[in-house]
What does this fold into?
Amino acid sequence: MLTSRRQMMGWAALGAGGLALAPRLALAQTGGEKRFVFIIQRGAADGLNTVIPYADPAYAQLRGSLAIDVADATRLDGTFALHKSLAKVGELYASGQAKFVHAVGLPYLSRSHFNAQNVLECGGRKPYELNSGWVNRLLTLLPPGKGKAVALASAMPMAMRGSMPVMGYQPAQMADPEDELLQRLSGLYQDDPQLHGLWEAAVDVHAEVSDIRTGRSNSKVGTLAGTLLGKRNGARVAMIETSGWDTHNAQNAVLTKSLTILDNLISSLRDALGDAWKDTLVIVATEFGRTAAVNGTGGTDHGTGGLAMVLGGTIQGGQVISDWPGLSPSALYENRDLKPTTALDTIITQALSEHYGWDPEVASQTLFPRT
Amino acid sequence: MDAAFALNRFGLGARPDEAIPEKPEAWLLEQLDRYDPRPRSWSVQRPSAKIIEESIGLRRAAAEARGKKRQVARRAANRLALDSYNAAVTDRAFAAIETSTPFVERLVHFWANHFAISGEKGSVRQLSGAYEVEAIRPHVLGRFEDMLVAAEQHPAMGLYLDQTRSVGEASPEALRHKKRKTKKKLSIGLNENLGREVMELHTLGAQSGYSQADVTEFARAITGWTVGGYERGPVQDPARLGAFYFHPGLHEPGVRQVLGKSYAQTGEAQGLALLRDFARSPATARHIATKLARHFISDDPPPEVIEHLARTYLSTDGDLPAVYRALVEVGADAAAGTVKFKTPWEWLISSLRAMGLERSDSASFVKQTKVAVLMRDLGQRVWWPGSPAGFADTASNWLSSEGLWSRARIAQDFVGMTGRSPDPRELAAKVLPGSLSDSTREAVGRAESLSNGLALLLMSPEFLRRS
It folds into this structure.
């Protein structure tokens, strides 16, 4: 089944580079004022447990204790199922407003968060090649006055930096430290008798309060973005940062939490956009995927091929798009990772071109210059 | 001495744009020749007399106005106190972030904390920056005695420790007051607050063996030391509005007996003679040596180091650079195996230095981020220790769960605050030369995002301490 599927969808192999091979995403031409939201998942989100390839015979074995049974997930098609924490995203899929693109990759393969995030955000061929972001360059393609942009982040993200003005908005002043930071600090202080106990006490005290606060503040970010984008003469392009994806240890609980937060964020964004949702395109992407196999600490390590999501009222038809490479030992990239078979930038270019009615070839020269 | 020790224990932490000193001791000592008492960051600080003049004007206007106008005037006076304070905290921070003489800037912070004022009173708060610029910075490389006099005679100190309220019991003003037949009489008399703290905190030290009588006598000797605009009784010298001056009408006449010695001087000279003797006392030498050793060597400094520094102090007549040289000389050996946990101020300043912050391109940081607010959140309000003893200089005072948590919250936001996003992997080796641990290097490299990588670096065990 997987093979036939692959033959059916033979497009956009990584490295082939030809946009002619890019899939049509079938976005609606709605006629309203277009909105675009880019949600970045910093830390390398685990695509394999988000959109689960349950029909791949190697999946359950590789994932071991982390493997998710299709019965505990939302079946998307004959091959893939969705993590149950993405319940509202699943509803979007069911109503034809979500597509998942599996086994995507960047033009520069690196297992370093910083390098890969730089490539993902700048759109260059290698890290630090460009010093502006593709979302900022996208603004140059919009009619004058129609490209108000906002970044909901404490610092201006690289993808939003460049010559076009972007408003920064920090949702919560002095938020509590992110879970990733907490865990890594716990690791750093572990052998430090002076710091260890004090730090663990601080984490304990704040854990309960922050759980509640995180859920609330993430819905708040979505609502805020939706409100800013929904307004007449408001922002038309937004970027939102999410974190908590670097699941090296005890992944199940962490991923469940991060996906729940993402799910709340997307649904609150949709709700706040109201009628404008039909004119909205949302792309969710991460810098790379995670190892195909579970590691020794109930988590996964830095991998290669990942997952992207294309959502919004502008999407017609739920679909998992993938030139699925398979998870058999010989199919894995460097014997450990899902092999990327689709270039993420072609997906982004194609989606944006269909959304805005651009010629993909022209748009790609601005968004992902390859010369 | 290795570079890490010089940069962190004696300096304020490395800046990525500055070379790692090849000869750490020489690097520290040559700073004594390059120090600028009035660097660019402090160039706009208004003199204390001007601030006091404006503030008194606003308070008077408030007192004379009625209803809403009074409220407006009162608010303007409060605003002045707060704005002056906030601006000065930022100026102080940038002087420290940008300086190329971090050892001497650290000494400025040390002495400002030794001669601590505290911002509870608006009248003191608004003078914080002017106090440091006028009383501390010019004398940090001079003689202790000169700094002592400058600090005790500064309006901020006079107001903070109630010296402006102190009137000699047998002074002309007190006698006149007694004769006056009014129903509501203000009490008028001696206030020992400044006198006691000079002896206990600024010079001799609490355990040095003076008596209550000594304190009272010294307090009497400095009656008449006042600030124009705040005098008890009639103004002696209207031209000195906002400035320190000696008011003979408030001074206790007569010879004073302090620590077994008679002081027959008259007027201002009497108090000055006492300060001079305090400054030259072995008790003061020991007190100062202990505090310096605690700051630079360890929370529990070795007695022989204290002894050595005290001897240097006494043999040079309180020449501070001579004491600093002695400290640098013995520092590395004496401090072997010790750690100093950074105070919130030290941590924030070293972090912003590590970020390579510069005032010229930090307009938004200055505008949006109040260093004063960050320091409040970190639990160490600048110039606001809440006590004339100043902030404690030992780890036990700063090591706490909440303290670490606040630092982590702020560390996570440094990229957003400063608009700078240096690669933390490159930065790590530059700002922790010789002290970067493998586990920190690894954690920084693996962080989920650049801002978390930076936060990890600045929250690493080695960065939280002055190696």
User: Anything to note?
Assistant: Confidence is low (pLDDT under 50) at residues 1-20 of chain A. The CA atoms of residues 354 and 362 of chain A lie 12 Å apart. The first strand of chain A starts at residue 35 and ends at 41.
